[in-house]
Amino acid sequence: MNRLVRTVLMTAFDFDDELFQQYIETQIINGFLQKPIMLKDLVKEVDNQLHIYQLEEHKTKLP
Fold it and tell me: What is the pLDDT of residues 13-37, one digit of tens each?
């Protein structure tokens, strides 16, 4: 699995909390937005994930 790939779950449905927590812990899901999604929340989450991506990418380039 490529740890640089960021995944944000967007849903309007309830889901299994235990499974969701497992996916968060294993970084299968990196973020979550509950519908209806406000534009400011989407922008904030995308900005957050881009920041994390940049940090992770920088780590992979260190000697």
Answer: 777 788 888 888 998 899 999 999 9
